[in-house]
Amino acid sequence: MKDYDFDINIAVVGIGLIGGSYAMALRALKPRSIIGIDRDGKVLKNALHRGIVDEVYESGGKFLKDVDLVIAALYPGDTVKFVRDNLQNFKNGGIITDTSSVKRDVVRDINSFLPGHIEFVAGHPMTGRESRGIEFASADIFTNANYIITPSNKNTARGLKIIDEMARRIGCGSVVYVSPEKHDDIIAFTSQLPHAAAVSIINSHGENFINSMSSFIGGSFKDITRVAQINSELWSELFMMNSDKLIDEIEIFQRSMDRLKTALKGKDTDMLKDIFENAACRRKSLIKR
Length: 289
Description:
By secondary structure, this protein is of the alpha/beta class. It has 11 helices and 9 strands. Keywords: Membrane, Oxidoreductase, Transmembrane, Transmembrane helix.
């Protein structure tokens, strides 16, 4: 199958960090137009002034009839709502994708009401920053990032190819296909558990202790707590939508901590070394760059 021609109209819904970065990166594909949709008029004015988008709207509407590809860079629940609210506006044969980091509920809900002439291809770019907003958006945020597609039985070869090729051409280093169930299972460990651990570490002592320790903070503390600078609204939604998977991972993590505590209580240096060496070996094999 030949390369897809991105001489099309693309709409990005939600012009924040991820949506703004998408709009910037998509310029390299030379689309006919990039339309920005956001509830915040100031954000739209900024994006238009900087040439990130060509047209702006504060909500969906009939203009979507001319849009070939819609990228919803919204919270999961807002993505579902946007699609539902604009069913009568989407183009026949149009493709919708998302950026949500939880997939089961999003895929199930959208596919439950989406008509057959519109296709939803669930996508998850594994990228981001601690800072929020279009001010921090950048086309290179996708460079060498992993991109996950979670296909359903309603997807076509054409729809999957378009999103796969888009991901690769904006710079993603790999595109992986897994079921929505498997995606949420793995993401609970690789993304949500680290955020839960970082938040728990920061919250494990009272304010007086935390305020007195600034002179004792080094690289390791900064590294492990970096993601504790968290968007509470978004991550509360993500955790709740994947609570069963995350609870499983928290319980596994607690057992791992219990083993470490057992070694310390028993003064078992050999056991402690084994824990450390096993972790070092696993990380080396898991993270290759």
